[in-house]
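Please, is this right?
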Amino acid sequence: MKIPPTTSFSLRYLAAPWLAAVLCCGITAAYGDSIYDANRLLRVTDTGDRFESMALQQTRDIIRTYSSIVSMSAEVALPLNLKRTIAACYAEAYAWDKFRPGIAQILVQVLNQKELLLLIDFYSSRSLPPKEIPAFKNVIAKADQIQRLSADYIYAHANSCVDRDAELIFSYLGSL
């Protein structure tokens, strides 16, 4: 039986949105899998803990620098409550949860699904099958790009505490 042209056209017309929806869901699902795997990679590598540890050390260094400057120029020590206030600003400005989604997005942009899974497997078991070594080398070659994009992202999305720090320190020195 031959389908009349008008029926065929209307079926195609109805099928087009359905096909588009299926393709979009497939793309969205694949993207969702990639984001899930990128976040999984961040967890497996303890990136969040290492990030927060580095931010804490950086904060200590900043406070030590402020203390040295104030001590040398005004011959006074910064009070503990002022140091805690400064540290709280940096803890909020550089909280890992603020940056994790953007870093995961960068991983998805730079690495494909297979590469994400390869890294997850590597960091989970600390080993690599010999046949995966060339793929692993290709992934490692992308590390500089990931690092650069991540640094740019953090810089663009971090709030600065420097102006507030200066106001607090000058206010303290003015109250002496």
Residues 38-174 form one domain.
